[in-house]
Structures are given as structure tokens and as C-alpha cells.
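Q: what sequence does this backbone want?
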């Protein structure tokens, strides 16, 4: 059964077309992440699901019920925003209890639910404090607590972690994932952070310019991107894109470098392509040749250590490519070295349509 079904959804703000015909079905219990660059329509889509924006066309069903014209409070949803929006003069306890009191839930039941949520989120000792006496991460937990006590069918999150520093964001990401495992509820989570999308999602919906660019399991999108946009959006550092021409069964870069054609691609002689190589699929050349890899001589340009890994820039095919090596593969700018590129995992893109071949 699907908890959410969106059909042919459009949203106009005046003459601006923000959501351009979205169809989406979310099965019960799934963690769906809406991801995409700033301004692509993620919040608009989420707010339309919540009923905070009115759809211009199309249909929204929640739990099998058409709610396209229903008020937010009649939609069986709970929402967590980026700016936690806590009531400053109410204690943590009362902030969490607020929605339940408004719904006239019995005091005993409220107490049980608030305490259970506080336990799950590790904020039980803070229940009597005011929001201003909390850290940013603690406030965010209260905002999440307020949503989970609602026991709604659908949980909606709009960039709930973007105000937190990197360390706290990592911790809270784990908390949210754990919460989903414990509650087993359907969650729709908006972020522009591809790491959050990859780590949290059962399924990613990658939006671009008000439309779904690609939808699937995180690894599907990562390993089988349908377009250059998807290939470039997911993965860090970003995938390398090199202009090339197919010549005599090889991919020839603009500087004349010949690389073997990745197997199974339908290309014709003389065809212009864009070769896509992930930084993780380039290795420092070792003692023996690796199957499917091609060996290329390069000069190191720039070295960025990140701790366990190191990101290394080097010129290839008329551009600067980036590779990710293990930190012990020490190199220095100006050094000549050889790399192994895994051509089996490289992709070819049609430069006109920007779709993967
Ligand atoms: N109330 C509004 N009136 C007019 N235009 C709007 C309104 N709200 C959003 N927009 C426009 O609609 C587009 C989509 O906005 P939206 O907030 O959904 O983007 P987003 O994907 O959530 O971006 P971000 O990652 O920056 O939050 C943007 O171009 C935005 O300027
Ligand atoms: Mg937004």
C-alpha cells in the first residue's frame, strides 16, 4: 500500500512554474529523499504535500484519501522545518506536547508520548528547560520530538539539519536513520546535500527544475545515472567529464590520449561523447595491471589531503581531473606518475541530449 500518491502535480507562483508535472508514489514505511540543487522545487513539493501550498493542478493522496484540497491539519502528516520554530516561552515538554494538547489528547497519554519521544531522542533530562537554554542540536531534537509524538502517517522533513555544524549534522543523521528504523514510518525528507540523500534514503527522487530527473535506490542512481546531471550531482568529489571522440574502437581525448572503449556501449565511429570517470575509479598504478583498467602517465598538479583519503588534481584530456587515492599514496605537485583508470565503470554521455549511452 502507498501512503502517498502524487499525480500530475503542478505549482505556479504567479507566472513562475515551480513544479512541472510530478508523479510519485511512496510505499508505506519507505524513507524517500527529495534532493536537488537550490531552487529546483523541493520545498514547494513538500509544502504542497503538507497543504501549506495549494496545488495549481494535479492530485495528492495520503493514506489512500484524496487530500488535494484538505487543510494541513486534516492530512495525517507531521512536519519538521529547517528553522525549528519552537515556542520560546514554553518548556521543552510543553513544546513537544503542544500539538497533542491542541488535539485534546488525554493528559496521561500526552505524558507517555512526550517521555517516550524524549527518551528516543536523548533529551529526557532537558524537558523542563526553555528553548533558549538548549544548543542548536538539542533544539532540533525537540522539533523532531514534536513531530514524532503526533504519530502521523507521513513525516515530512525540510532540510532539518542544515542549520547545524558538520559534526552535529553527522550525529543527527544517524539519529534520524535510527528513528526511521524504530518507528517504521513513511518519511519524506528534503535536502540539497547528496551525502544525506545517499546515506538516508531507501529511494532518492532527484529533482531538477521542477521535474523528476531520476528516481531509484541510492546505489542505482550512483552506479547507473541516466543523465550527466545525475552523474555529476551524486558523488564527491564530483565525477570527471572529458570531451572525447570514438575512433577505431577507442575513446580519444582532446589531447590525443587513447582509452579503451567501455564494453557494451552502442557508439559509432567518429561520434562525439563525454567520458565520465568517478575520482574513486582512478587508482595510483600498482605493480600489476588491473583487468579493465588503462594505464596513463600524468603530472600531479594539486594535492588535498582529507584524512584517510587524498584528492589529487592532474591534467588529462585538456582539463584538470580529480582522483581519490588512499592517503598513504603520497604524491607531491609536479611529480610524474602513472594512474590506472577503471574503464569498465566509466560512462559515456551523448553531448547533445546529455543522456548516458
Ligand atoms: N512564494 C513564492 N513566490 C514566488 N516564487 C517562489 C515562492 N516560493 C518559491 N518560489 C520559487 O520557486 C522555486 C522553487 O523554490 P523551492 O523553495 O521549492 O526550492 P528548493 O528546491 O526548496 O530550494 P532550496 O534548496 O534553496 O531550499 C524557486 O525558484 C523559488 O524562487
Ligand atoms: Mg527548500
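A:
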Amino acid at each position: 500500500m502507498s501512503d502517498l500518491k502524487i499525480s500530475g502535480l503542478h505549482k505556479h507562483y504567479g507566472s513562475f512554474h515551480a513544479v512541472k508535472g510530478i508523479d510519485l508514489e511512496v510505499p508505506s514505511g519507505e524513507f524517500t529523499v527529495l534532493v536537488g540543487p537550490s531552487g529546483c522545487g523541493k520545498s514547494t513539493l513538500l509544502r504542497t504535500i503538507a497543504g501549506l501550498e495549494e496545488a495549481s493542478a494535479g492530485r495528492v493522496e495520503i493514506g489512500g484519501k484524496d487530500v488535494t484540497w484538505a487543510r494541513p491539519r486534516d492530512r495525517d502528516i507531521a512536519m519538521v522545518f529547517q528553522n525549528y520554530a519552537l515556542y520560546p516561552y514554553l518548556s521543552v515538554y510543553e513544546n513537544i506536547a503542544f500539538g497533542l494538547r491542541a488535539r485534546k489528547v488525554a493528559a496521561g497519554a500526552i505524558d507517555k508520548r512526550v517521555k517516550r519521544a524524549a527518551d528516543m531522542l536523548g533529551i529526557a533530562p532537558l524537558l523542563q528547560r526553555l528553548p533558549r537554554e538548549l544548543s542548536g542540536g538539542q533544539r532540533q531534537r525537540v522539533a523532531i520530538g514534536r513531530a514524532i509524538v503526533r504519530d502521523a502517517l507521513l513525516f515530512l522533513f525540510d532540510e532539518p539539519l542544515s542549520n547545524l555544524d558538520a559534526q552535529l549534522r553527522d550525529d543527527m543523521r544517524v539519529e534520524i536513520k535510527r528513528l526511521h528504523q524504530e518507528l517504521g514510518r513513511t518519511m519524506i525528507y528534503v535536502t540539497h546535500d547528496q551525502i544525506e540523500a545517499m546515506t538516508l534514503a531507501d529511494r532518492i527522487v532527484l529533482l531538477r527544475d521542477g521535474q523528476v530527473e531520476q528516481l531509484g535506490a541510492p546505489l542505482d542512481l550512483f552506479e547507473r545515472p541516466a543523465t550527466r546531471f545525475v552523474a555529476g550531482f551524486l558523488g564527491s568529489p564530483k565525477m570527471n567529464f572529458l570531451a572525447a571522440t570514438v575512433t577505431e574502437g577507442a575513446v580519444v581525448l582532446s589531447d590525443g590520449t587513447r582509452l579503451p572503449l567501455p564494453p557494451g556501449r552502442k557508439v559509432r565511429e567518429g561520434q562525439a561523447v563525454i567520458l565520465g570517470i568517478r575520482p574513486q575509479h582512478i587508482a595510483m598504478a600498482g605493480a600489476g595491471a588491473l583487468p579493465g583498467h588503462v594505464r596513463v602517465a600524468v603530472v600531479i598538479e594539486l594535492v588535498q589531503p582529507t584524512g584517510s583519503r587524498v584528492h589529487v588534481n592532474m591534467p588529462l584530456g585538456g582539463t584538470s581531473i580529480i582522483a581519490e587515492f588512499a592517503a598513504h599514496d603520497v604524491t607531491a605537485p609536479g611529480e610524474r606518475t602513472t594512474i590506472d583508470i577503471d574503464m569498465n565503470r566509466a560512462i559515456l554521455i551523448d553531448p547533445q541530449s546529455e543522456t548516458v549511452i
